[in-house]
Amino acid sequence: MEQKILTIHQQILHAKKNGQKLLAILLDPDKIVWENFGHLLSKINESPATHIFVGGSIVESSLIEDLIKQLKQNTDLPVIIFPGDPSQISREADAILFLSLLSGRNADYLIEYQVQAAPILKKTNLEVISTGYILIESGNETAVARVSKTKPLNRENLDLALATAQAGEMLGNKLIYLEAGSGAKQAVPLEMIQLIAQNIEIPIIVGGGIVNLQGIQKAHNAGADLVVIGTAFENDNYFFES
Ligand code: 1GP
After folding, report:
1. Strand ranges (DSSP E) for 180-225?
2. Which CATH number fits domain 22-237: 3.20.20.70, 3.40.50.720, 3.20.20.390, 3.40.190.10?
3. pTM for the structure as a whole
4. Is 182 near ligand 1, meaning CB less than 6 Å away?
């Protein structure tokens, strides 16, 4: 019988259904030290990561295409663009998180960039995964808040975070991403992850400010289906061995 190839979104749904927890390493093209790239690749391949995310709030590097090509050639992991704006679209990747910043009220990040990106994406074979992106206050101003000129949701207002996630689900998003921001002082509160996980059906991504393996485990246990690690792995490629 012919084996059906699942899309990345279907694989995430499948993992959720089977209780398999997922982990993405986030690589910011601007922060890649190319001299050490071979080492970085072997550390990614030795890690428990199931996905690679590529992107950043602002990416200046023109090397995003090269980075994705290299990752595709040297790892078996799906490479997903996690873009700050449409300039970060690359046809070399497998998929893109088509984000809408639901916690903010800046129309550019709710719909304008998506309108600009749509015709570009139509010319690629990228799998487009619509994702409700929710920024949660984390103790310091993060790049997402600064660049998007939006205010994160109050970390104590669980009801508002839940209503925002539910609205995202009702709008037809395939994923919800709870984001504390890269390098956040405090990660997304576990009670918030738990409440949202119990009250929406679609998979939840959680990232920002997770600095150790216990942090990953706690987020997974609270209900995150996929956890994202950026800064901690960037600073220490031996992170997963600790
Ligand atoms: C940021 O969620 C990601 O968009 C990862 O954050 O860099 O703090 O791990 P960190």
Report:
1. 204-207
2. 3.20.20.390
3. 0.97
4. yes
